[in-house]
C-alpha cells in the first residue's frame, strides 16, 4: 500500500475523530454541569445531549467511510497518493470543524436554557436548525473527498 494512502486515511479519521472527541466530551461536560445547576431539568438536558452527540458523531462516521475508501484503493488505479491525502484532509478538517462547532452550539443552547427555561422549546428548535447547518460543512467535506477519490 502506498504510504500516501495511509496518510490520507489517517487524516480522514484522525482529524474527524479529534473534532468529534472534543465535541462529544465538551457536550457531555456542559450537560452534566447544567444538570448540576438545575436538577429538575435533567431529562431535558439529557435530550439535548443525545441530540448533540448523535449529530457530532456523524462527522467521525464520514471520516471512517473515507478512510475505508482510501484503504480499499488499488494502487493501480488513477487515484494518486496526493489525491488520497487531499481527500483525507478534506473530510478530516471538515469533521474537526463540525465537531467543535456543534459542541459550541449545543453548549450555548444549554446555557440559554439555564438562563431562560420557559423558552426551552424554542431554544431546542433553533438548536436543531443550526446543528443541521453546521452539519452541512461535514457533508461538504465528504462530497469533496468522494470527488477527489473519483
Give the CATH level 1 class.
Answer: Mainly Alpha
- Unreliable runs: none
Helix residue percentage: over 70%
Examine the coordinates and then state which fold CATH places here, giving the name of the CATH topology. Four Helix Bundle (Hemerythrin (Met), subunit A)
Oligomer: single chain
Net shape: elongated
Query: What series of H and E elements makes up the topology?
Result: HHHH
The average pLDDT value, as a whole number, equals 94
Tally the helices: what do you get? 4
Which strand-content bin applies to the residues?
Answer: under 5%
Largest sheet: none
Would you kindly provide a written description of the structure presented here, covering whatever features stand out?
The two termini are 18 Å apart. The protein is elongated. The chain contains four helices and no strands. It has a single domain (3-149), classed as lithium bound rotor ring of v- atpase (Four Helix Bundle (Hemerythrin (Met), subunit A)), CATH 1.20.120. With 150 residues, it is mostly helical. The longest helix is centred in the N-terminal third of the chain and has 35 residues, at 3-37. Helices cover 87% and strands 0% of the residues. α1 (3-37) packs antiparallel against α2 (42-71), α1 runs parallel beside α3 (81-115) and α3 runs antiparallel to α4 (120-149).
Give the secondary structure arrangement, pairings included.
Elements: H1 3-37, H2 42-71, H3 81-115, H4 120-149
Helix pairs in contact: 1-2, 1-3, 2-3, 2-4, 3-4
Descriptive keywords:
150 residues; mainly alpha; Four Helix Bundle (Hemerythrin (Met), subunit A)
Amino acid at each position: 500500500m502506498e504510504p500516501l494512502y495511509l496518510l490520507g486515511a489517517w487524516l480522514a479519521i484522525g482529524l474527524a475523530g479529534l473534532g468529534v472527541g472534543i465535541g462529544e466530551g465538551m457536550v457531555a461536560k456542559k450537560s452534566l454541569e447544567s444538570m448540576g445547576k438545575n436538577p429538575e431539568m435533567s431529562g431535558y438536558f439529557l435530550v439535548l445531549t443525545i441530540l448533540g452527540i448523535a449529530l457530532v458523531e456523524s462527522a467521525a462516521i464520514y471520516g471512517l467511510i473515507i478512510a475505508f475508501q482510501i484503504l480499499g484503493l488499488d494502487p493501480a488505479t488513477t487515484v494518486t497518493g496526493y489525491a488520497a491525502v487531499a481527500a483525507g484532509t478534506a473530510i478530516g478538517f471538515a469533521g474537526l470543524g463540525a465537531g467543535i462547532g456543534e459542541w459550541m452550539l449545543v453548549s450555548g443552547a444549554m446555557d440559554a436554557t439555564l438562563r431562560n427555561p420557559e423558552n426551552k422549546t424554542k431554544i431546542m428548535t433553533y438548536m436543531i436548525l443550526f446543528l443541521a447547518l453546521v452539519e452541512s460543512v461535514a457533508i461538504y467535506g465528504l462530497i469533496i473527498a468522494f470527488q477527489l477519490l473519483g
